[in-house]
Amino acid sequence: MYLKSRLSKLNHKFRYTKKSKQYSKDFLKSSLDKNAASWSRIKEMLQTLQPMETGHKLIRIGSNFDGGYLVPDDLQGLEATFSPGVSVEIEFDLEMAKICKQCYLADASIEQPINLEKNMHFIKKFIGNNKEKDFIRFEDWIEESEPYSNNLLLQMDVEGAEYDILSKTPKNILEKFRIIIIEFHSFDKIFNREYLEKFEKTFKNLNKSHTICHIHSNNTLPYISFKNTTISPVFEVTYLRNDRIKSKLKRAKIPHPLDQPNSPKLPDPTTPNFWQ
Fold first, then answer.
1. Distance CA 108, CA 84 (A)
2. What is the pTM of this model?
């Protein structure tokens, strides 16, 4: 049994490394396109992803490996959580439902999970910027569910739609969230000017009201090596609203001791220091 498990792990590692090399080749090719964004502009954008210490220690909420997130220990008084993008693994939401009065979940791609607590409310809708058949506007969802609170937590994993949503979310809506956790996607496309502009607008909008306090690369997709920089196509970022910061900002250290690989079967390269 041990030998079989060991061989399986080695096979996963081999395929992962092979894909990583191919991802890196494709990434290099995209950088050489005549319409590619400049590396200096990309580096400037990456440097805005510097996590800072905020005076709150980080704690882990959710399951081990995929589905768990590091958040600042500033949860007292939180009234509700919003989770657009729901998977089979909802341990994070179940834990938050014990902390907050209400927990709101939305996803049109799945049926309502069967193990929800009484204070958890699921809608079979995608979150977006427009009212369509299977969509609800992000700010409408927030305003209709919690019109008066500014003690909210957002945990968003919407497979790339985060850029179109958060780049256009008004500041007064973002400021309702004390803590924001987002899984960002598609960083293998940063040489594409259209994508890069989305990234820049999203980070700029979030940085108006919040500060990054943690960043963690998701190892389920192979990493890209480019110009002595490691690029993770998918990574998780935790933000804290600026008025909750308790200390003079200084750079946070990564990786954090509580970090875990999203997939324990795959190699887990260190989360890249984008800002160096």
1. 10
2. 0.94
